[in-house]
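Page 37, continued from 36.
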């Protein structure tokens, strides 16, 4: 199901039946027949012909197939006779389920205490030579229901071959029949789907471009397959290389050509499945690919007339000539976003996360693969096939609509296309009607379907794949087929064909709307027409909240990249890749302008997809007036992920000062090697991972106020991988260092769906680098994010409990903590809100947070009564407390306590009413979890004795200094020595600080220029102005922040966007391997550290791979371009061998 789990009415009927090997399709309905419904029954009857003969006393009947969702009967004529065939002893079964008397095989009842407790699955009757076998469908009419007993998780277990056997009492007559049980006629397992699409490609119609692509790899290493059907490769190339860039950059040119009738173009139509356990969806996409790849035409009927019911509608014949369609379209078939779920029969990804909530967040690799394709193809329409609602539901959705849409361009077409899908779907199935949520809302209470008249099927979130498409200027539809059976399959399949027919008939008009959508963004056009579609619960226009300005959209957004302790530049820089994947252009500043610095990221909102950019970066809207919302509505990446994004309402502010992003990683702070320690700011998700990495390596890490203390060398090591902020520390930490933490985080968020998934917090803990264990006994701490725990876990270990799925409510109900109470917002719903809060920033649990900060919750609760001995940590502001979200009567939250801490049974207990790790999106809140786990007494800071202090000042006159002229740094062999003109510098040679810069004065009073100066055992360089150079290359050598030549260390150069390594003589390494801190790295020509690339080493005669952080991959699988490779110990690529049961070929690729 795409969204809700609703009860729905039973609609009997199966339109396709199998008649002893002959396919019989029910006739298309005329107007008078449109309301009829047929009992799903297959009857096989040939009484005039002997269908089975005796051989050696055994009668073997013809093999047959039955379906779990349709009744069937078989009538056989034998050449032997029995007075009553039912008197034989009849059994049924197979090796998997055992062989049992047919009386023990019961049908499934979908009711309380149900399951296989219904009527007998088989009835045997007949006399003389006539034998009749009646089969009652194993699961009734459909296999999709989850409650009160879970048919959806059960039915696949009973797919297979069985034997029906009858034996006479004397044993002289034995009757056998092989019966294959399948869910419905068009059902395919994952392997059958893969076989089908390969056959479709192989059997493609001559002269047609039919290809299969692997667009990604799932968590369980299953390929994500996508089919493409086009007229030819030239059609694809023209669309991707000509139409697409023009569409996104110069839509006005295409508009002019379109209106003049001079534009020859083809547009993609994207057919997709998101939820893999809504099985007919995959079957529909698979069979449509087959038909468009192999057939010349497809004929069907649709209905014509007002309304969404069959009554009073006339039929219309439709014939889709595929050759003609391919002159106008390219067809994209994404068989399923979730191959793991198809194999395991689960709604969620392998990690338990729902793919139809992740289209906007994009925290899972499968989602990112699909989003990449959507923005590569920018289709005219995206049809996402789901199940199962009470009705045959087809979007567009109810309000509230996202204000970043341009709905006036698409609303009519969305409704028209939905009707086209619905009419074709019900014309070719037994479905009596279809439902469009938006139209039900507009009918109003008492007229429209009450499920939708108050909203509740909204398009305020980019999390849903179908809605995500609308942000991109695509006609995006979620289509909910009403059941898992053959009839619903037909409704969905013909629904898609109905859409294709509509898109074909209205192609120019629809493309014009799409081009106008892009043109509005590029020209920064804002129209009242778009605002008129933004209505409230009373259907009155609310428009866009411009906050007193004349315009809604900013001219720019700036994402500052200057490292600081209050801005997560790692997450800010990650938006470059995110926006690229989503079709949004990001630039960087070429110079300082006002408060904004050269290198800062800038999104110029004068671009095609400005609406999506704004949706991601703005604060969001307050939708609390609505009675119902479907799921999370807050995107707000800056607040949720912890980086700054500044909206700029000033035209032309950065005109002429923007260029392509040249940086490959987020900027880093420079390191002063003369200090012993660094204080690492506790301000980012990257910081948590970096600290955990050091802890697991056995490095000394200490907590301090708002951060951690690590050695300079350790800070430099993690800085290579993580963009974290640190400041030099000239004091020595004394105290207990942090150790690896083992956490017990039980729970199964998908228990009600009938399968196991890890708790969401356990996945987030692993993201952060903590060790998650299976039992309380082996844990150092407990974190609970759901209500399925037992109160006996409390008080045994330090414990954090947060909102989650009623986790705090479970604590209150356990009555173990006197005077603890939570209060829910009206209706006990999972309201979502982002709040302005006051944080007790002196509490160690709040390390890294500001006194005035933000707090996210989707639990709909707050803490209304505080137990004795506990104290508040987070409190909602009294005024202007609510930022965005959906939280009815949110004024009640003003001034309320949202998190407290204290002790229970002498163990620390942290109670947090929000959701700090929601769907991997709320990275800014992750530190509430890590702070709790690392909540130790801060290290004391002691002065470092003079004898242990490194030199931090410039050289003084009593030191021996040598100079050498030239602009090329000498190697150590070139450094002057006592045998080649050593000059002992008189004491008058001295360093002086002038205007904040160090200069070197010689004995004659002149200032050294363009020279190397050796002081003690360190080399310094002064430039043409005589100023000591810092943080730059001088020839092939690098001078660090102290001015001293770098030796035997890593250098990160922000100008070149790369790491370099300098040897003990100061020269950089190139075309060679180095080993530091136990890890191998490769430095390419020019000294650039290799990353994300293959290295072929002729000396070792092998390929090696270095990862994103430059480390050599060893003893691990890596996935590149949808292929898997294994790197053995030492980094050698495996080839022509079997690793962990997986075979790799001569190219090193895993072969299935």
């Amino acid at each position: 199901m795409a969204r809700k789990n609703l009860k729905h009415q039973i609609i009997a009927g199966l339109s396709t039946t199998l008649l002893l090997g002959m396919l019989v399709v029910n006739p298309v309905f005329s107007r008078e027949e449109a309301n009829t419904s047929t009992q799903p029954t297959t009857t096989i009857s040939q009484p005039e012909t002997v269908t089975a003969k005796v051989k050696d006393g055994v009668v073997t009947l013809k093999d047959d197939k039955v379906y779990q969702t349709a009744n069937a009967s078989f009538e056989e004529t034998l050449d032997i006779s029995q007075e009553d065939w039912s008197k034989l002893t009849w059994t049924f079964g197979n090796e998997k389920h055992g062989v049992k008397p047919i009386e023990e095989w019961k049908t499934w009842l979908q009711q309380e205490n149900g399951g296989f407790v219904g009527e007998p699955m088989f009835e045997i009757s007949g006399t003389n030579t006539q034998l009749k076998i009646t089969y009652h469908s194993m699961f009734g009419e459909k296999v999709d229901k989850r409650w009160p007993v879970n048919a959806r998780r059960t039915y696949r277990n009973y797919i297979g071959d069985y034997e029906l056997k009858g034996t006479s009492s004397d044993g002289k007559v034995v009757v056998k029949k092989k019966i294959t049980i399948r869910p419905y006629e068009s059902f395919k397992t994952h392997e059958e789907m893969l076989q089908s699409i390969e056959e479709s490609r192989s059997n493609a119609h001559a002269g047609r471009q039919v290809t299969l692509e692997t667009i990604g790899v799932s968590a369980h290493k299953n390929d994500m397959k996508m089919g493409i059907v086009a007229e030819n490769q030239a059609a694809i190339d023209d669309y991707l290389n000509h139409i697409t860039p023009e569409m996104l950059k110069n839509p006005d040119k295409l508009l002019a050509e379109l209106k003049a009738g001079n534009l020859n173009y083809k547009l993609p139509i994207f057919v997709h499945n998101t939820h893999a356990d809504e099985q007919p969806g995959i079957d529909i996409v698979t069979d449509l690919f087959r038909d468009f790849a192999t057939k010349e035409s497809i004929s069907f009927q649709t209905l014509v007339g007002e309304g969404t019911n069959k009554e009073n509608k006339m039929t219309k014949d439709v014939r889709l000539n595929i050759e003609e369609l391919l002159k106008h379209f390219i067809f994209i078939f994404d068989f399923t976003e979730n191959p793991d779920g198809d194999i395991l029969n689960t709604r969620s990804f392998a990690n338990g996360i729902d793919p139809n909530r992740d289209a906007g967040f994009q925290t899972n690799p499968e989602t990112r693969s699909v989003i990449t394709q959507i923005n590569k193809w920018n289709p005219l329409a995206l049809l996402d096939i789901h199940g199962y609602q009470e009705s045959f539901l087809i979007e567009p959705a109810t309000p509230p609509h996202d204000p970043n849409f341009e709905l006036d361009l698409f609303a009519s077409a969305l409704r028209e296309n939905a009707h086209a899908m619905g009419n074709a779907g019900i014309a070719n199935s037994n479905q009596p009607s279809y439902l469009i949520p938006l139209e039900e809302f507009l009918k109003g209470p008492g007229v429209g379907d009450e499920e939708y008249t108050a909203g509740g099927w909204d398009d305020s979130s980019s999390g849903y794949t179908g809605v995500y498409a609308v942000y991109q200027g695509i006609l995006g539809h979620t289509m909910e087929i009403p059941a898992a059976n053959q009839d619903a399959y037909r409704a969905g399949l013909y629904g898609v064909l109905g859409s294709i027919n509509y898109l074909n008939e209205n192609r120019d008009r629809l493309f014009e709307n799409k081009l106008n959508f892009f043109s509005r963004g590029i020209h920064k056009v804002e129209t009242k027409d778009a605002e008129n579609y933004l209505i409230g619960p009373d259907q009155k226009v609310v428009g866009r909240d411009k906050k007193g300005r004349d315009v809604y959209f900013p001219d720019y957004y700036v994402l500052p990249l200057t490292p600081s302790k209050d801005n997560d530049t790692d997450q800010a820089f990650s938006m470059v890749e995110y926006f690229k994947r989503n079709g949004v252009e990001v630039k960087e500043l070429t110079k300082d302008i006002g408060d904004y610095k050269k290198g800062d990221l800038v999104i110029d909102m004068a671009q095609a997809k400005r609406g999506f950019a704004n949706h991601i970066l703005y604060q969001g809207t307050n939708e609390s007036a609505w009675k119902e919302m479907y799921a999370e509505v807050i995107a707000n990446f800056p607040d949720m992920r912890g980086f700054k994004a500044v909206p700029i309402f000033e035209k032309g502010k950065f005109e002429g000062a923007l260029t392509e992003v040249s940086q490959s990683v987020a900027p880093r702070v420079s390191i002063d090697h003369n200090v012993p320690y660094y204080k690492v700011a506790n301000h980012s998700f990257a910081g948590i991972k970096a600290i955990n990495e050091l802890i697991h390596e056995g490095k000394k890490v200490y907590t301090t106020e708002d951060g951690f203390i690590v050695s300079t060398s350790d800070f430099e090591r993690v800085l290579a991988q993580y963009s974290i902020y640190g400041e030099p520390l000239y004091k020595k930490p004394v105290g207990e260092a942090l150790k690896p933490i083992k956490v017990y985080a039980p729970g199964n968020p998908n228990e009600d769906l009938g399968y196991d998934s890890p708790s969401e917090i356990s996945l987030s803990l692993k993201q952060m680098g903590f060790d998650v264990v299976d039992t309380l006994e082996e844990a150092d701490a407990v974190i609970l994010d759901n209500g399925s725990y037992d109160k006996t876990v409390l008080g045994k270990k330090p414990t954090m409990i947060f909102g989650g799925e009623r986790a705090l409510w479970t604590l209150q109900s356990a009555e173990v903590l006197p005077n603890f109470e939570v209060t829910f917002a009206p209706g006990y719903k999972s309201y979502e809100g982002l709040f302005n809060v006051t944080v007790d920033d002196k509490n160690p649990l709040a390390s890294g947070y500001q006194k005035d900060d933000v707090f996210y919750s989707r639990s709909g609760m707050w803490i209304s009564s505080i137990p004795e001995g506990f104290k508040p940590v987070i409190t909602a502001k009294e005024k202007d407390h609510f930022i965005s979200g959906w939280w009815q009567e949110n004024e009640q939250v003003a001034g309320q306590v949202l998190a407290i801490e204290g002790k229970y049974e002498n163990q620390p207990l942290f109670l947090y009413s929000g959701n700090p790790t929601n769907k991997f999106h709320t990275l800014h809140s992750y530190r509430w979890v890590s702070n709790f786990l690392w909540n130790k007494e801060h290290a004391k800071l002691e002065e470092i004795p003079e004898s242990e202090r490194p030199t931090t000042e410039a050289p003084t006159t009593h030191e021996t200094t040598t100079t050498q002229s030239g602009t090329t740094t000498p190697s150590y062999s070139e450094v002057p020595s006592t045998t080649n003109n050593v000059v002992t510098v008189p004491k008058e040679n001295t360093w002086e600080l002038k205007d904040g810069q160090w200069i070197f004065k010689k004995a004659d009073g002149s200032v050294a220029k363009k020279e190397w100066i050796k002081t003690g055992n360190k080399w310094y360089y002064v430039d043409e102005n005589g100023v000591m150079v810092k943080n730059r290359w001088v020839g092939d050598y690098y001078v660090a922040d102290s001015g001293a030549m770098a030796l035997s260390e890593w250098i990160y150069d922000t100008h070149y966007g790369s790491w370099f390594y300098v040897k003990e003589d100061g020269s950089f390494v190139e075309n060679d391997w180095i080993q530091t801190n136990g890890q191998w790295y490769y430095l390419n020509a020019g000294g650039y550290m290799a990353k994300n690339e293959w290295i072929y080493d002729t000396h070792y005669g092998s390929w090696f791979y270095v990862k994103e952080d430059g480390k050599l991959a060893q003893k691990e699988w890596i996935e590149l371009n949808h292929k898997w490779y294994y790197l053995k110990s030492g980094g050698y690529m495996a080839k022509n061998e079997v690793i962990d049961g997986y075979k790799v070929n001569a190219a090193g690729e895993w072969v299935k």
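The chain has a mean pLDDT of 89. Flag for discussion at group meeting. The chain is about 20% helix and 30% strand.
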